[in-house]
Design a protein that fits this description.
Its main location: mitochondrion. One of its GO terms (biological process) is fatty acid beta-oxidation. Belongs to the enoyl-CoA hydratase/isomerase family. The chain is an alpha/beta fold and 339 residues long. The protein folds into two domains: 77-279, 2-enoyl-CoA Hydratase, Chain A, domain 1, CATH 3.90.226; 283-330, Lyase 2-enoyl-coa Hydratase, Chain  A, domain 2, CATH 1.10.12. The chain is built from 13 helices and eleven strands. The protein has a seven-stranded mixed beta sheet, with helices on both faces. A four-stranded mixed beta sheet has the order 5-7-9-10. α3 (105-118) links the parallel β3 and β4. The protein is globular and about 60 Å long.
Length: 339
C-alpha cells in the first residue's frame, strides 16, 4: 500500500505546510496495513475521529426483504439488522413515546452502546436512524429530567450528548436520518450528524434552544452552518424558528421531502430506498469516499485534493477493485467482499 501511494503524482509532497491538515489516525480507520503518504501523516483536520479500524462487510444483498431477530438493548432504542435483500442495513429506532423521544440519560446510554457496537461490526453497510413513535423524531433534551439536575450536572451530561452525536457523525458507513415528525433541539442535532437527511413534508425541525436562554450544545452551532450556510444558520438559531419539511428542503437542510403516508413512515421508506441503492457498491470505496469528503470539507482545496489522492490509493490494491473490472468485462453484477 505504501508503495502504491508513493507512486502517485508529486502533489502530495508539495503541499503548503500551513494549509495541509489531516487526521493522523485516518489510516488506522481504513484498516491495518493501509497508510497515508508520509507527507500527509500527522496533519490535522477538524475534530473528526476516524480511528475505529473498521473493516468492510462481506457479501452482497440476498433477494428478499425481511427482518432478523431484534437486538434489544432496552425498549427505548430498538436496533434492527435487516435481512435478505436488505442485509447490511441497520435501523436504529427511537421508541420513547412517553417522553416524545427526548434525550434522557438512559436513551443516551443506549445510543452510545449501540453506536459502539455498530462502528466495529463488519457486516454493517448503512445505518438509518428513525423514530418508532408516530409524529415524533426526537423532541430534544428531556427537560423534565434536566430540571432535576444541578448546575454542576448539566455540563457533563450535555458533553455526553455531544460525544454520542459526534460518534454518530464519525461512523465509517453512510448514515441516514429519517425524519417523520418533530425534530427539535438535540433531535435536529442528531439528524445533522447523519450524512443524509430525509423528511416528511409535515415534519417540524428547528434549533430552538435560545428560547430557553441556552444555545445548541450537541453540535448544532457547527453543523447547521456547514449544512445551510452561516448567515441563514444564524437567522434560524437567533429566532428559534421551526421549519416544515418543504421549508427545510428549500434551504438545503434535508435532501428529500415526501408527502406523509397513512402509516406515518414516508421518510423512513425513502431512507430505506436510498440505503438499498448503497448496498451494491464496493464497501471499501464507500468508506474511503466518506472519509475523503468529510476530511476534505475541513481544509483548503489543494489539501482536499491530496486527501482524495491518498484515499483513492487505498482502493487500488483491493480485491474488490479487480472484481469490479472483471464483472464489467463479463457483463455481470460484481460480487464485492470488502477486501
Amino acid at each position: 500500500m505504501a508503495a502504491a501511494v508513493a507512486a502517485g503524482p508529486g502533489a502530495l509532497g508539495s503541499l503548503h505546510a500551513g494549509g495541509a491538515r489531516l487526521v493522523a489516525a485516518c489510516s488506522a480507520w481504513l484498516c491495518s496495513g493501509l497508510r497515508l503518504p508520509r507527507s500527509l501523516a500527522g496533519r490535522r483536520v477538524g475534530p473528526a475521529i476516524w480511528a475505529q479500524g473498521w473493516v468492510p462487510a462481506a457479501g452482497g444483498p440476498a433477494p428478499k426483504r425481511g427482518y432478523s431477530s431484534e437486538m434489544k438493548t432496552e425498549d427505548e432504542l430498538r436496533v434492527r439488522h435487516l435481512e435478505e435483500e436488505n442485509r447490511g442495513i441497520v435501523v436504529l429506532g427511537i421508541n420513547r413515546a412517553y417522553g416524545k423521544n427526548s434525550l434522557s440519560k438512559n436513551l443516551i446510554k443506549m445510543l452510545s452502546k449501540a453506536v459502539d457496537a455498530l462502528k466495529s461490526d463488519k457486516k454493517v453497510r448503512t445505518i438509518i436512524i428513525r423514530s418508532e413513535v408516530p409524529g415524533i423524531f426526537c423532541a430534544g433534551a428531556d427537560l423534565k429530567e434536566r430540571a432535576k439536575m444541578s448546575s454542576s450536572e448539566v455540563g457533563p451530561f450535555v458533553s455526553k450528548i455531544r460525544a454520542v452525536i459526534n460518534d454518530i457523525a464519525n461512523l465509517p458507513v453512510p448514515t441516514i436520518a429519517a425524519i417523520d415528525g418533530l425534530a427539535l433541539g438535540g433531535g435536529l442535532e442528531l439528524a445533522l450528524a447523519c450524512d443524509i437527511r430525509v423528511a416528511a413534508s409535515s415534519a417540524k425541525m428547528g434549533l430552538v434552544e435560545t428560547k430557553l436562554a441556552i444555545i445548541p450544545g450537541g453540535g448544532g452551532t457547527q453543523r447547521l452552518p456547514r449544512a445551510i450556510g452561516m448567515s441563514l444558520a444564524k437567522e434560524l438559531i437567533f429566532s428559534a424558528r421551526v421549519l416544515d419539511g418543504q421549508e427545510a428542503k428549500a434551504v438545503g437542510l434535508i435532501s428529500h421531502v415526501l408527502e406523509q403516508n397513512q402509516e406515518g413512515d414516508a421518510a423512513y421508506r425513502k431512507a430505506l430506498d436510498l440505503a438499498r441503492e448503497f448496498l451494491p457498491q464496493g464497501p471499501v470505496a464507500m468508506r474511503v469516499a466518506k472519509l475523503a469528503i468529510n476530511q476534505g470539507m475541513e481544509v483548503d482545496l489543494v489539501t482536499g485534493l491530496a486527501i482524495e489522492e491518498a484515499c483513492y490509493a487505498q482502493t487500488i490494491p483491493t480485491k474488490d477493485r479487480l472484481e469490479g473490472l472483471l464483472a464489467f468485462k463479463e457483463k455481470r453484477p460484481p460480487r464485492y467482499k470488502g477486501e
